[in-house]
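My hope is that you will study the record closing this message with an eye to the fold:
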Amino acid sequence: MPVINRVAEMQDQVAEWRRHLHQNPELDYDLPQTSQFVADKLKSFGCDVVETGIGKTGVVAIIKGRHGDGPVIGFRADMDALPIFETSGKPWASKTPGKAHSCGHDGHTSMLLGAAQYLAETRNFKGSVALIFQPAEEGGAGALAMINDGFMDKFDIRQVYGMHNEPHLPVGNFAICKGGIMAAADVFEITINGRGSHAAEPHNAIDPVLTASHIVIALQSIVSRETNPLKSLVVTVASVHGGDANNVIPDSVKLVGTVRTLLPETRDFAEKRLTAVAQATALVHGATADVVYRRGYPVTMNHAAETEFAVEVASKVVGPKAVEGDTAPHMGAEDFSYMLEKRPGAFIFIGNGDTANLHNAAYDFNDEAIPFGISYWVTLAETALAA
């Protein structure tokens, strides 16, 4: 079952929706226009239920099949943009400086809307499909907010599936793997407390800048010398703040960064060792280190049976040669992980072609991917809920 003819005919229309969303990006949970646009479309398609305000600005629609009762499966798309100044130069570029759909959530939302329109027209399945439009994926844990509002239990969703575009994966290709497909992402802040002094008298100081420099280097030993190379760990110090003058040694320096892991035991180990290494290194230099470690999104853990099913479905759409079923995991994070903790399911990558990378100011979603994404959703529904 290749790309569905009706879906191919929908491409231009869905691309118009996508470009409208791209021109009008909104951030985090503050999605009044985006949520309204999505809800209006879903109502116009004749969905049986359209409920708004889930997880603040999330939207869930239910489409019932015409072949009787059956289970409910959920398909999720994210709606929020990023605080980035777009440089794509596209005619449909963001109209709001400092906000841009630089991760392709406009494409995800539009493809799921296209699937909703098709499924509402045909209803060739037994049971129901839940279309989940989520806010605040970009750091706000919108998936968790929707879960906490009880939508999974309310609509009796049994399985959940997600999709994300992947630059440099050819259009018309899919990639997925069992187990951890995206990393857990934690955040740390290390405040090094020393003693300030005149820059000409370093012997009277306990230099937090020098201490911070040693800590930055020492943290990498956790990765290179304490962790099995086959158990992925990334420790990144992304920000260093301290001092205001060129002739003053400051009293303190703050380091801020992230820790990314694919296994729970590696995550626990990294948290413990980061604190110990930072504090011990500070002690060697006569300083102290206060460490704040905050856990973020968990590992996006694909379930085995549902991953195999996703491979089967994608293969029906594009052929088995265009589906990589054992792709390498990504060390980026994704809050669809919370949904996969609550229900079995799978998260798949869809090719975006030779485009700028995600979270890049020049990025734009590739509209050529639209028919493949919609066909995947439709085929998944009609296969999982076969009459």
Summary: The first helix runs from residue 5 to 23. Residues 5-181+299-384 form a domain with the Aminopeptidase fold (CATH 3.40.630.10).
